[in-house]
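Escalation from tier 1.

The customer reports that the assembly of two entities below gives different structure tokens on two consecutive runs. Tier 1 could not reproduce it. I'm attaching the input and our single run for tier 2 to review.
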Amino acid sequence: MRTEILAIGTEILLGQIVDTNSVHIAQELSDNGIYLYGTSTVGDNLNRIVESMRYSLSKCDALIVTGGLGPTQDDITRQAASIVMGVELEQDPQLVNIIEGFFKARNRQMPANNLLQALVPKGASYIEQRQGTAPGLICGIGNKVMYCLPGVPHEMKEMLSRAVIPDLLLRDGEKWAVKYSNIMTWGMSESAIAAKLSEEFDRLERMQLENELNTPSIAFLANLTTGVKVRISVSGQNTPELDIALNNEVSKISEILGDCVFSTTGESIEDVVKNTFISRNLTLSVVESLTGGLIGSRLVGVPGTSFYFKGSLVAYQSEIKHSVLKIKSESVVSALAVNEMAKAGLSLFDSDVCLAISGVAGPDSQEGKEPGTVYIGLYCHGDKLSTVNVEPVELKLFGTRDSIRQIAATSALDLLRKRVGLI
Amino acid sequence: MRTEILAIGTEILLGQIVDTNSVHIAQELSDNGIYLYGTSTVGDNLNRIVESMRYSLSKCDALIVTGGLGPTQDDITRQAASIVMGVELEQDPQLVNIIEGFFKARNRQMPANNLLQALVPKGASYIEQRQGTAPGLICGIGNKVMYCLPGVPHEMKEMLSRAVIPDLLLRDGEKWAVKYSNIMTWGMSESAIAAKLSEEFDRLERMQLENELNTPSIAFLANLTTGVKVRISVSGQNTPELDIALNNEVSKISEILGDCVFSTTGESIEDVVKNTFISRNLTLSVVESLTGGLIGSRLVGVPGTSFYFKGSLVAYQSEIKHSVLKIKSESVVSALAVNEMAKAGLSLFDSDVCLAISGVAGPDSQEGKEPGTVYIGLYCHGDKLSTVNVEPVELKLFGTRDSIRQIAATSALDLLRKRVGLI
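Tier 1 run:
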């Protein structure tokens, strides 16, 4: 089964937004073992959209289109789809009810043009929208299929995983399965990980050449905020042996990579920190400076954070570190400072553990320290916490203001899961 | 002059890397008034690359190709270009010298396969590489042109601005330009904005039909975190009239949309808040609850925040609101609570203005209040601040835990720029 992706939107063509939708869809297709043949982008122009849909469909069995389903005059994907199908657009009474209900539930007047979103090409079916008002479309064209999804990323993602991927797998029909696990790491570069795994790479290549069944493959996905994800996948007949082959490989790779692995099941580092604290019945507070609240914000992204995370103080201006936290160190970007900040946070929030971070995000230097200089401190009280080393950590990071803050935040969370995990 | 972009690489198709190259090229073309017709992506497969090059060239005058110029077996853009041109590949002696020189200058042995990079389709010229070893190509095909650039972003960018854009402008000859402005809004849905602009849409459509020069066009881009962006663009002869047409339309649309517009020049709301505070010489502190630090984190994303932002307290657990902030209200999700939180924050941080936010992010209800219930309070002291209304605002938001937090944060920043903007 060959698929293609078509992204619609002049703002993508103008480079004003990055088409993350196509990237996400490509990943999902790859993870589900569905073959992607090509992607393309076209502006908000009816003739060109129709032309692009036809050309993509000529090359593939299933086309996934994103964008152009909104309620405004420049949203013309529905019209284009009806032209490609060679049918009229009809107003679907059920969709009218759903869209009117959406506004009623919010006590809002429905702008009349929202009813444009109730139009469906004759013979197509719709994908219910669960987050906004634009429904998706499933358009049969001969023995091929075209899915039209909204361009708003969270709406698109939800429809893709709920309706499109299952439908594609159903149409695909083969009993072929692709299974995978994501090994999550922090603190090693992609090339360092690749070097550590080179023998294993060679071994898997030999297996592949000998056509051994259920041979795992390894792929990397590096991300500034979440670290390097090592994806292990196996494809083959959907049998228990396939799962065994996957699990064995995951154990092997994790053992080789060691301490930089924080999850073998794709969990985020925020999840791992939460589980570490909750399973030990400990509470956490944070004192932030250069990250401005990013660490707290990332922690509370996971439901259930209130069971262990008491709160944080963002002491952004240097003055606040002295006036509110009463730190004595004159330097506010130093090992001494984060040590004092962590101690002060522990008593302010009355928590079992306090994490403190201070540094220079840039673009300017501070106290003669270069952008990227970051200190992380950790302070705990109580007997059972004596295993936690409270020596502050100094980092030298590179990159933009934003990437320094992101890497600093993840490094702090990683320190937390490592040290508190020892208790 | 119509251009197209073709990105080559299986790792892009698998979603393993984001194709930032096409985004960059699109921006450069737009900034230089060169018309981009479409973009596409294809994997490392000779037949499909040739097919994609031919199809793109059939639609445009100039094709910019990225990727596949490296020294390894899967780099086949040179072969594909020679097939599309209908000529042989030849080794260019000057290129051999340059590539050998690159390794000699670094005292490194040249791997033999690097000489693949000295191959040029007969009749094509090359673009000298100044950062690595892969030269670019300029391939004439009839009266059309195809540029092949390396996929490594900094190498691609350097060649694009040094060789490709100037060559395109020279070929273009016309002094055609596209100019645009982004009007940034918060608090109105895309469809409500479209409804408000429907008369203006009709007027512009009539102008278009009558082929009036410099007719602006309007496009929308909705985003959960940043609001609805209304892009006004005009294309035409690059004359002062073009700028006047753009500026007039921006003023007109801003006036129609009114208070929901926070910038007519594409600034982020964080920038607008910063400028509002700095120009009034005021300082800010924040007390957050459900957002967990997100507001502070977004504020410090802009350089220069330390001139006005003192810090924030994240009082995540209800207990902290009582123990640290000493609020008396039993309910922590209420107008009364955010009022007390803002007052307490003002005195804790000794700031001119304090913003406080509390609410239910979900998935569970709290104090019998549904997820999405959010209160925002604002407190100020001093005479000149009496213009700021300190009545708390109640919001009812919908969506996931993450989208509720994002919308709540932007709503709080929007309240800040509106109220403090009155001072």
